[in-house]
Amino acid sequence: MKTTTSQALFAEAQRLIPGGVNSPVRACKSVGCDPRFIRRASGSKIYDVDGNEYIDFVCSWGPMILGHNYPAIMEAIRQTMADGTSFGAPCPQEVELAELVTGALPSVDMVRFVSSGTEATMSAVRLARGYTGRKVIVKFDGCYHGHADSFLVKAGSGVITLGIPGSPGVPEDIVRNTVSIPYNNEEILEKTLRDASLDIACVIVEPVAGNMGVVPPAQGFLAKLRALTSELGIVLIFDEVITGFRVSYGGAQQKFGIMPDLTCLGKIIGGGLPVGAYGGKREIMSLISPVGPVYQAGTLSGNPLAMAAGAATLKALQAPGFYEKLETKATAFAAGLQQLADKYLGEATLNRQGSVMTLFFGPGPITDFDSAMKADANLYGKFYRSMLDLGIYLAPSQFEAMFLSSAHSDEDLARTLEMTERSFKKLQN
Ligand SMILES: *Cc1c(COP(=O)(O)O)cnc(C)c1O
Question: Is 131 an active-site residue?
Protein backbone atom coordinates (compact mmCIF):
# COMPACT_ATOMS: atom_id res chain seq x y z
CA MET A 1 0.00 0.00 0.00
CA LYS A 2 1.49 3.35 -1.02
CA THR A 3 1.53 5.86 1.84
CA THR A 4 4.17 8.38 0.77
CA THR A 5 1.81 11.38 0.63
CA SER A 6 0.52 10.65 4.15
CA GLN A 7 4.10 10.29 5.34
CA ALA A 8 5.15 13.61 3.84
CA LEU A 9 2.14 15.39 5.31
CA PHE A 10 2.73 13.82 8.71
CA ALA A 11 6.34 14.98 8.72
CA GLU A 12 5.26 18.54 7.92
CA ALA A 13 2.36 18.36 10.38
CA GLN A 14 4.67 17.28 13.19
CA ARG A 15 6.74 20.40 12.62
CA LEU A 16 3.68 22.64 12.88
CA ILE A 17 1.17 20.88 15.14
CA PRO A 18 2.11 19.06 18.36
CA GLY A 19 2.44 15.39 17.42
CA GLY A 20 1.13 16.30 13.97
CA VAL A 21 -2.47 15.94 15.16
CA ASN A 22 -5.23 17.99 16.69
CA SER A 23 -6.47 15.16 18.92
CA PRO A 24 -3.97 12.71 20.44
CA VAL A 25 -5.38 9.25 19.59
CA ARG A 26 -5.23 10.13 15.89
CA ALA A 27 -1.44 9.96 16.03
CA CYS A 28 -1.80 6.14 16.16
CA LYS A 29 1.04 5.87 18.69
CA SER A 30 -0.44 2.99 20.68
CA VAL A 31 -0.87 0.88 17.54
CA GLY A 32 2.66 1.54 16.37
CA CYS A 33 2.23 3.24 13.02
CA ASP A 34 1.79 6.66 11.49
CA PRO A 35 -1.63 8.11 10.71
CA ARG A 36 -3.13 8.13 7.25
CA PHE A 37 -4.28 11.55 6.09
CA ILE A 38 -7.83 11.40 4.80
CA ARG A 39 -8.86 13.26 1.67
CA ARG A 40 -12.52 12.33 1.42
CA ALA A 41 -15.21 9.95 2.55
CA SER A 42 -18.42 8.53 1.17
CA GLY A 43 -20.90 6.09 2.70
CA SER A 44 -18.99 3.40 4.59
CA LYS A 45 -15.64 4.27 2.99
CA ILE A 46 -12.86 6.74 3.58
CA TYR A 47 -10.05 7.51 1.14
CA ASP A 48 -6.58 8.70 2.08
CA VAL A 49 -4.37 11.20 0.27
CA ASP A 50 -2.54 8.37 -1.52
CA GLY A 51 -5.82 7.13 -2.97
CA ASN A 52 -6.20 4.07 -0.69
CA GLU A 53 -9.75 3.03 0.17
CA TYR A 54 -10.81 1.78 3.59
CA ILE A 55 -14.02 0.49 5.13
CA ASP A 56 -14.40 2.93 8.02
CA PHE A 57 -15.29 1.74 11.53
CA VAL A 58 -14.27 4.95 13.28
CA CYS A 59 -17.09 6.95 11.71
CA SER A 60 -15.51 10.17 13.01
CA TRP A 61 -15.72 8.57 16.51
CA GLY A 62 -19.47 8.20 16.30
CA PRO A 63 -21.19 11.08 14.50
CA MET A 64 -21.44 9.37 11.11
CA ILE A 65 -24.20 6.91 12.06
CA LEU A 66 -25.68 7.40 8.57
CA GLY A 67 -22.33 7.02 6.87
CA HIS A 68 -20.26 9.77 5.27
CA ASN A 69 -21.60 12.38 2.90
CA TYR A 70 -25.22 11.43 3.60
CA PRO A 71 -27.23 13.25 0.92
CA ALA A 72 -29.91 14.84 3.14
CA ILE A 73 -27.29 16.18 5.55
CA MET A 74 -25.10 17.56 2.78
CA GLU A 75 -28.13 19.21 1.20
CA ALA A 76 -29.17 20.79 4.53
CA ILE A 77 -25.66 22.18 4.99
CA ARG A 78 -25.51 23.51 1.41
CA GLN A 79 -28.90 25.20 1.66
CA THR A 80 -28.10 26.78 5.02
CA MET A 81 -24.63 27.85 3.91
CA ALA A 82 -26.04 29.76 0.95
CA ASP A 83 -27.38 32.28 3.49
CA GLY A 84 -24.14 32.71 5.42
CA THR A 85 -22.21 30.69 7.98
CA SER A 86 -22.51 32.45 11.33
CA PHE A 87 -24.45 35.38 12.72
CA GLY A 88 -23.73 35.47 16.44
CA ALA A 89 -27.47 35.94 16.85
CA PRO A 90 -30.37 33.51 17.30
CA CYS A 91 -31.31 31.54 14.18
CA PRO A 92 -34.31 29.35 13.31
CA GLN A 93 -32.19 26.19 13.00
CA GLU A 94 -31.49 26.29 16.76
CA VAL A 95 -35.18 26.11 17.54
CA GLU A 96 -35.68 23.22 15.14
CA LEU A 97 -32.85 21.16 16.65
CA ALA A 98 -33.98 22.02 20.20
CA GLU A 99 -37.46 20.74 19.32
CA LEU A 100 -36.00 17.51 17.93
CA VAL A 101 -33.75 16.94 20.95
CA THR A 102 -36.38 17.67 23.60
CA GLY A 103 -38.84 15.57 21.59
CA ALA A 104 -36.48 12.61 21.65
CA LEU A 105 -35.52 12.79 25.33
CA PRO A 106 -38.35 13.07 27.89
CA SER A 107 -35.81 14.01 30.59
CA VAL A 108 -34.80 17.09 28.62
CA ASP A 109 -37.24 20.00 28.91
CA MET A 110 -34.68 22.56 27.79
CA VAL A 111 -31.38 22.33 26.00
CA ARG A 112 -28.38 24.63 25.50
CA PHE A 113 -26.18 24.11 22.43
CA VAL A 114 -22.40 24.45 22.58
CA SER A 115 -19.63 23.50 20.14
CA SER A 116 -18.16 20.29 21.58
CA GLY A 117 -18.85 17.46 23.99
CA THR A 118 -16.17 18.85 26.29
CA GLU A 119 -18.03 22.13 26.58
CA ALA A 120 -21.26 20.25 27.26
CA THR A 121 -19.91 18.19 30.19
CA MET A 122 -17.94 21.10 31.61
CA SER A 123 -21.01 23.32 31.56
CA ALA A 124 -23.32 20.62 32.95
CA VAL A 125 -21.03 20.18 35.94
CA ARG A 126 -20.89 23.93 36.54
CA LEU A 127 -24.67 23.96 36.44
CA ALA A 128 -24.95 21.01 38.84
CA ARG A 129 -22.63 22.77 41.26
CA GLY A 130 -24.55 26.02 40.91
CA TYR A 131 -27.85 24.23 41.48
CA THR A 132 -26.78 22.23 44.55
CA GLY A 133 -24.30 24.69 46.02
CA ARG A 134 -21.98 21.71 46.49
CA LYS A 135 -18.51 21.02 45.19
CA VAL A 136 -17.60 17.41 44.54
CA ILE A 137 -18.01 15.53 41.24
CA VAL A 138 -18.19 11.75 41.28
CA LYS A 139 -17.10 10.01 38.07
CA PHE A 140 -16.11 6.50 37.11
CA ASP A 141 -12.65 5.11 36.30
CA GLY A 142 -12.17 4.79 32.55
CA CYS A 143 -15.12 7.02 31.62
CA TYR A 144 -14.21 9.99 29.44
CA HIS A 145 -16.06 13.27 29.59
CA GLY A 146 -13.91 15.47 27.41
CA HIS A 147 -10.74 17.23 28.45
CA ALA A 148 -11.87 19.81 31.02
CA ASP A 149 -9.57 19.90 34.07
CA SER A 150 -11.98 18.29 36.55
CA PHE A 151 -12.40 15.16 34.45
CA LEU A 152 -8.75 14.30 33.96
CA VAL A 153 -8.64 11.84 36.83
CA LYS A 154 -8.51 8.18 35.80
CA ALA A 155 -10.08 9.19 32.50
CA GLY A 156 -10.65 7.06 29.42
CA SER A 157 -10.04 7.60 25.69
CA GLY A 158 -6.67 9.16 24.77
CA VAL A 159 -5.79 9.55 28.42
CA ILE A 160 -5.59 5.73 28.72
CA THR A 161 -4.26 5.18 25.25
CA LEU A 162 -1.26 7.36 25.93
CA GLY A 163 -0.84 5.99 29.45
CA ILE A 164 -1.20 9.38 31.10
CA PRO A 165 -2.35 8.97 34.72
CA GLY A 166 -4.04 12.34 34.71
CA SER A 167 -2.44 15.39 33.19
CA PRO A 168 0.22 17.88 34.17
CA GLY A 169 -1.27 21.34 34.15
CA VAL A 170 -4.29 20.25 36.15
CA PRO A 171 -3.85 21.68 39.67
CA GLU A 172 -4.41 19.37 42.64
CA ASP A 173 -6.86 21.90 44.04
CA ILE A 174 -9.13 21.19 41.09
CA VAL A 175 -8.98 17.40 41.03
CA ARG A 176 -9.37 17.30 44.81
CA ASN A 177 -13.02 17.94 44.07
CA THR A 178 -13.29 14.96 41.73
CA VAL A 179 -13.77 11.46 43.08
CA SER A 180 -13.32 8.59 40.64
CA ILE A 181 -14.70 5.16 41.51
CA PRO A 182 -14.95 1.82 39.64
CA TYR A 183 -17.68 1.44 37.02
CA ASN A 184 -20.36 -1.18 37.68
CA ASN A 185 -19.59 -1.52 41.38
CA GLU A 186 -22.76 -0.84 43.38
CA GLU A 187 -21.14 -1.34 46.75
CA ILE A 188 -18.42 1.28 46.30
CA LEU A 189 -20.96 3.56 44.66
CA GLU A 190 -23.30 3.45 47.65
CA LYS A 191 -20.49 3.87 50.16
CA THR A 192 -19.14 6.89 48.26
CA LEU A 193 -22.45 8.63 47.73
CA ARG A 194 -23.44 8.15 51.38
CA ASP A 195 -20.12 9.52 52.64
CA ALA A 196 -21.25 12.58 54.55
CA SER A 197 -17.75 14.07 54.54
CA LEU A 198 -18.01 14.52 50.76
CA ASP A 199 -19.99 17.45 49.49
CA ILE A 200 -21.29 15.80 46.32
CA ALA A 201 -22.92 17.99 43.69
CA CYS A 202 -23.24 15.45 40.91
CA VAL A 203 -22.44 12.06 39.51
CA ILE A 204 -21.48 12.00 35.85
CA VAL A 205 -21.52 8.71 33.98
CA GLU A 206 -21.36 7.28 30.49
CA PRO A 207 -24.51 5.12 30.75
CA VAL A 208 -22.76 2.72 28.39
CA ALA A 209 -19.04 3.26 28.80
CA GLY A 210 -17.37 3.74 25.43
CA ASN A 211 -13.98 5.23 26.14
CA MET A 212 -12.24 2.29 27.85
CA GLY A 213 -13.56 0.19 25.02
CA VAL A 214 -17.26 -0.58 25.19
CA VAL A 215 -18.42 -1.61 28.66
CA PRO A 216 -22.19 -1.86 29.07
CA PRO A 217 -23.75 -1.15 32.47
CA ALA A 218 -24.29 -4.21 34.67
CA GLN A 219 -27.90 -5.20 35.29
CA GLY A 220 -29.34 -2.81 37.88
CA PHE A 221 -26.30 -0.50 38.05
CA LEU A 222 -27.95 2.54 36.48
CA ALA A 223 -31.17 2.00 38.48
CA LYS A 224 -29.15 1.90 41.70
CA LEU A 225 -27.33 5.07 40.64
CA ARG A 226 -30.64 6.80 39.96
CA ALA A 227 -32.19 5.67 43.26
CA LEU A 228 -29.22 6.79 45.35
CA THR A 229 -28.77 10.18 43.66
CA SER A 230 -32.51 10.93 43.96
CA GLU A 231 -32.50 10.02 47.64
CA LEU A 232 -29.42 12.12 48.38
CA GLY A 233 -30.30 15.17 46.27
CA ILE A 234 -27.30 14.63 44.00
CA VAL A 235 -27.64 15.70 40.35
CA LEU A 236 -27.32 12.72 38.00
CA ILE A 237 -25.66 13.60 34.69
CA PHE A 238 -25.75 11.13 31.83
CA ASP A 239 -22.94 11.81 29.39
CA GLU A 240 -24.66 10.59 26.24
CA VAL A 241 -22.18 12.20 23.85
CA ILE A 242 -21.67 8.75 22.28
CA THR A 243 -24.86 6.92 23.28
CA GLY A 244 -27.34 9.70 22.44
CA PHE A 245 -29.17 8.79 19.22
CA ARG A 246 -26.79 5.82 18.96
CA VAL A 247 -27.96 2.98 21.23
CA SER A 248 -31.54 4.05 20.48
CA TYR A 249 -33.16 7.25 19.22
CA GLY A 250 -33.73 8.27 22.84
CA GLY A 251 -30.21 7.22 23.84
CA ALA A 252 -29.21 5.01 26.75
CA GLN A 253 -31.80 6.65 28.99
CA GLN A 254 -34.54 5.31 26.75
CA LYS A 255 -32.82 1.94 26.29
CA PHE A 256 -32.51 1.36 30.04
CA GLY A 257 -35.54 3.37 31.18
CA ILE A 258 -33.64 5.71 33.51
CA MET A 259 -34.29 9.48 33.64
CA PRO A 260 -31.18 11.50 34.49
CA ASP A 261 -31.42 15.10 35.73
CA LEU A 262 -29.05 16.41 33.07
CA THR A 263 -27.90 14.94 29.76
CA CYS A 264 -24.84 15.80 27.70
CA LEU A 265 -24.91 15.28 23.96
CA GLY A 266 -22.51 15.75 21.05
CA LYS A 267 -21.21 13.70 18.13
CA ILE A 268 -24.38 12.47 16.33
CA ILE A 269 -26.42 15.62 17.06
CA GLY A 270 -23.99 17.63 14.93
CA GLY A 271 -24.20 15.35 11.90
CA GLY A 272 -20.42 15.67 11.47
CA LEU A 273 -20.12 19.35 12.35
CA PRO A 274 -18.79 20.59 15.70
CA VAL A 275 -21.64 20.49 18.24
CA GLY A 276 -22.37 19.66 21.83
CA ALA A 277 -25.42 20.19 24.00
CA TYR A 278 -26.57 19.85 27.58
CA GLY A 279 -30.12 19.76 28.76
CA GLY A 280 -32.46 18.57 31.43
CA LYS A 281 -35.16 19.54 33.85
CA ARG A 282 -36.56 23.02 33.39
CA GLU A 283 -35.99 23.79 37.06
CA ILE A 284 -32.25 23.17 36.72
CA MET A 285 -31.78 24.59 33.21
CA SER A 286 -33.48 27.83 34.30
CA LEU A 287 -30.38 28.63 36.36
CA ILE A 288 -28.33 29.22 33.21
CA SER A 289 -27.62 32.76 32.10
CA PRO A 290 -29.34 34.90 30.95
CA VAL A 291 -32.34 33.47 32.88
CA GLY A 292 -30.26 32.54 35.91
CA PRO A 293 -26.83 33.25 37.39
CA VAL A 294 -24.79 30.27 36.11
CA TYR A 295 -22.69 31.68 33.29
CA GLN A 296 -22.09 29.89 30.01
CA ALA A 297 -21.67 31.33 26.51
CA GLY A 298 -20.21 30.65 23.07
CA THR A 299 -19.38 32.70 19.97
CA LEU A 300 -20.24 29.88 17.57
CA SER A 301 -22.84 28.14 19.79
CA GLY A 302 -25.97 27.23 17.86
CA ASN A 303 -24.11 27.71 14.59
CA PRO A 304 -26.65 27.49 11.74
CA LEU A 305 -24.67 24.95 9.67
CA ALA A 306 -24.14 22.67 12.64
CA MET A 307 -27.79 22.97 13.72
CA ALA A 308 -29.00 22.21 10.19
CA ALA A 309 -26.70 19.19 9.90
CA GLY A 310 -27.90 17.94 13.28
CA ALA A 311 -31.57 18.39 12.46
CA ALA A 312 -31.18 16.60 9.12
CA THR A 313 -29.46 13.74 10.92
CA LEU A 314 -32.12 13.32 13.60
CA LYS A 315 -34.88 13.44 11.00
CA ALA A 316 -33.18 10.69 9.00
CA LEU A 317 -32.85 8.61 12.18
CA GLN A 318 -36.62 8.73 12.63
CA ALA A 319 -37.05 6.42 9.61
CA PRO A 320 -39.16 3.45 10.73
CA GLY A 321 -37.02 0.48 11.72
CA PHE A 322 -33.72 2.38 11.52
CA TYR A 323 -32.36 1.15 14.85
CA GLU A 324 -33.79 -2.35 14.44
CA LYS A 325 -31.99 -2.74 11.12
CA LEU A 326 -28.73 -1.44 12.57
CA GLU A 327 -29.09 -3.79 15.53
CA THR A 328 -29.66 -6.79 13.27
CA LYS A 329 -26.60 -5.93 11.24
CA ALA A 330 -24.48 -5.36 14.35
CA THR A 331 -25.65 -8.60 15.98
CA ALA A 332 -24.67 -10.70 12.99
CA PHE A 333 -21.35 -8.91 12.56
CA ALA A 334 -20.49 -9.23 16.26
CA ALA A 335 -21.33 -12.94 16.17
CA GLY A 336 -18.98 -13.35 13.22
CA LEU A 337 -16.19 -11.52 15.03
CA GLN A 338 -16.73 -13.53 18.19
CA GLN A 339 -16.60 -16.79 16.25
CA LEU A 340 -13.30 -15.84 14.60
CA ALA A 341 -11.84 -14.63 17.89
CA ASP A 342 -12.79 -17.90 19.59
CA LYS A 343 -11.26 -19.90 16.79
CA TYR A 344 -7.97 -18.04 16.44
CA LEU A 345 -7.31 -16.03 19.59
CA GLY A 346 -8.64 -18.12 22.42
CA GLU A 347 -8.86 -15.34 24.96
CA ALA A 348 -10.88 -12.50 23.49
CA THR A 349 -13.94 -10.68 24.75
CA LEU A 350 -16.45 -8.92 22.58
CA ASN A 351 -18.47 -6.22 24.36
CA ARG A 352 -21.31 -4.61 22.48
CA GLN A 353 -24.24 -2.30 22.89
CA GLY A 354 -26.20 -1.97 19.67
CA SER A 355 -23.96 -0.62 16.92
CA VAL A 356 -20.92 0.12 19.14
CA MET A 357 -18.58 -2.67 20.14
CA THR A 358 -15.04 -3.48 21.21
CA LEU A 359 -13.14 -6.70 20.70
CA PHE A 360 -10.81 -6.88 23.69
CA PHE A 361 -7.72 -9.00 23.16
CA GLY A 362 -7.96 -10.52 26.61
CA PRO A 363 -10.04 -12.55 29.04
CA GLY A 364 -13.53 -11.53 30.10
CA PRO A 365 -15.81 -10.60 31.53
CA ILE A 366 -14.81 -6.96 31.02
CA THR A 367 -16.97 -4.88 33.31
CA ASP A 368 -14.76 -2.00 34.39
CA PHE A 369 -11.45 -0.19 33.90
CA ASP A 370 -9.29 -2.80 35.65
CA SER A 371 -10.64 -5.71 33.63
CA ALA A 372 -10.37 -3.69 30.40
CA MET A 373 -6.71 -2.93 31.14
CA LYS A 374 -5.92 -6.64 31.08
CA ALA A 375 -6.41 -6.64 27.32
CA ASP A 376 -3.27 -7.02 25.21
CA ALA A 377 -2.91 -3.59 23.58
CA ASN A 378 0.26 -4.75 21.83
CA LEU A 379 -1.51 -7.58 20.09
CA TYR A 380 -4.31 -5.21 19.16
CA GLY A 381 -1.68 -2.96 17.59
CA LYS A 382 -0.52 -5.80 15.37
CA PHE A 383 -4.10 -6.57 14.43
CA TYR A 384 -4.76 -2.90 13.71
CA ARG A 385 -1.78 -2.60 11.36
CA SER A 386 -2.72 -5.76 9.50
CA MET A 387 -6.31 -4.60 9.07
CA LEU A 388 -5.22 -1.16 7.91
CA ASP A 389 -3.06 -2.71 5.21
CA LEU A 390 -6.05 -4.81 4.15
CA GLY A 391 -8.24 -1.71 3.79
CA ILE A 392 -10.12 -1.83 7.08
CA TYR A 393 -9.96 1.33 9.17
CA LEU A 394 -10.37 0.55 12.89
CA ALA A 395 -9.97 2.73 15.96
CA PRO A 396 -6.23 3.22 16.52
CA SER A 397 -6.48 2.03 20.14
CA GLN A 398 -7.62 -1.09 21.97
CA PHE A 399 -9.58 1.11 24.35
CA GLU A 400 -11.95 2.72 21.88
CA ALA A 401 -15.12 1.57 20.17
CA MET A 402 -15.86 0.22 16.72
CA PHE A 403 -18.80 2.11 15.20
CA LEU A 404 -21.22 0.69 12.67
CA SER A 405 -23.33 2.92 10.44
CA SER A 406 -26.36 2.30 8.30
CA ALA A 407 -24.04 2.74 5.30
CA HIS A 408 -22.11 -0.43 6.10
CA SER A 409 -23.43 -2.98 3.60
CA ASP A 410 -23.60 -6.73 4.17
CA GLU A 411 -20.79 -6.90 1.64
CA ASP A 412 -18.64 -4.47 3.65
CA LEU A 413 -19.17 -6.51 6.79
CA ALA A 414 -18.50 -9.84 5.10
CA ARG A 415 -15.30 -8.41 3.67
CA THR A 416 -14.30 -7.08 7.08
CA LEU A 417 -14.78 -10.54 8.62
CA GLU A 418 -12.72 -12.08 5.84
CA MET A 419 -9.88 -9.63 6.49
CA THR A 420 -10.24 -10.23 10.22
CA GLU A 421 -9.70 -13.94 9.67
CA ARG A 422 -6.68 -13.25 7.53
CA SER A 423 -5.24 -10.94 10.19
CA PHE A 424 -5.91 -13.38 13.04
CA LYS A 425 -4.11 -16.13 11.10
CA LYS A 426 -1.16 -13.79 10.70
CA LEU A 427 -1.14 -13.05 14.45
CA GLN A 428 -0.84 -16.74 15.18
CA ASN A 429 2.46 -16.96 13.32
C1 LIG B 1 -16.28 12.37 22.66
C2 LIG B 1 -16.78 12.42 24.04
C3 LIG B 1 -16.77 13.61 24.79
C4 LIG B 1 -16.07 14.86 24.32
O5 LIG B 1 -16.60 15.39 23.18
P6 LIG B 1 -15.68 16.37 22.27
O7 LIG B 1 -16.62 16.85 21.23
O8 LIG B 1 -14.56 15.52 21.77
O9 LIG B 1 -15.21 17.45 23.17
C10 LIG B 1 -17.39 13.63 26.02
N11 LIG B 1 -17.97 12.52 26.50
C12 LIG B 1 -18.00 11.36 25.82
C13 LIG B 1 -18.70 10.19 26.41
C14 LIG B 1 -17.37 11.27 24.59
O15 LIG B 1 -17.34 10.09 23.95
Answer: no
Q: Which of 287, 317, 347 is the last residue of a domain?
A: 317
Q: How far apart are CA 184 and CA 168, in angstroms?
A: 28
User: Are 312 and 400 part of one and the same domain?
Assistant: no
Average pLDDT for 20-46: 97
User: 195 and 307 share a domain?
Assistant: yes
How many whole angstroms separate alpha carbon 409 and alpha carbon 298?
39
Write out pLDDT tens, residues 349-398: 999 999 999 999 999 999 999 999 999 999 999 999 999 999 999 999 99
Question: 3-class DSSP state for residue 280?
Answer: strand
pLDDT over 60 (residue 231): yes
Same domain, 230 and 368: no
Which residue from 58, 60, 247, 267 has its CB within 8 A of the most atoms of ligand 1, so it is best to mutate?
Answer: 267
Adjacency order of strands within the sheet including 402-403: 349-353, 356-360, 402-403
pTM to 2 decimals?
0.97
Query: Where is average pLDDT lowest: 86-90, 286-290, 296-300, 345-349?
Result: 345-349
CA of 155 to the centre of ligand 1 (A): 12
The binding-site residues of ligand 1, defined as CB within 6 angstroms of any ligand atom, are 116-118, 121, 144-146, 206, 210-211, 239, 241-242, 266, 276
pLDDT at 162: 58
Which entry of 131, 267, 384, 393 is annotated as an active-site residue?
A: 267
Of 317, 339, 361, the last residue of a domain is: 317
Domain containing 406 equals 4-69+321-428
Number of structural domains the chain divides into = 2
Alpha-carbon distance 28 to 36, whole Å? 9
Q: Does residue 342 have an active-site annotation? A: no
The CATH number for 55's domain is 3.90.1150.10
- Catalytic residue (choose from 70, 144, 380, 393): 144
Q: Evaluate the CA torsion angle 285, 290, 293, 297 in order and state its sign.
A: positive
As a whole number, mean pLDDT of residues 178-202 equals 96
Residues 362 and 295 placed together within one structural domain of the fold: no
Please give the distance, rounded to the nearest whole angstrom, from the Cα atom of residue 346 to the centre of ligand 1: 33
Q: Are residues 90 and 204 in the same domain?
A: yes
Give the sign of the dihedral formed by CA 139, CA 143, CA 145, CA 146.
Answer: positive
List pLDDT tens digits, range 313-336: 999 999 999 999 999 999 999 999
Given the residues 48, 56, 239, 368, the one annotated as active site: 239
A 10 A CB-CB count for 131 gives: 24
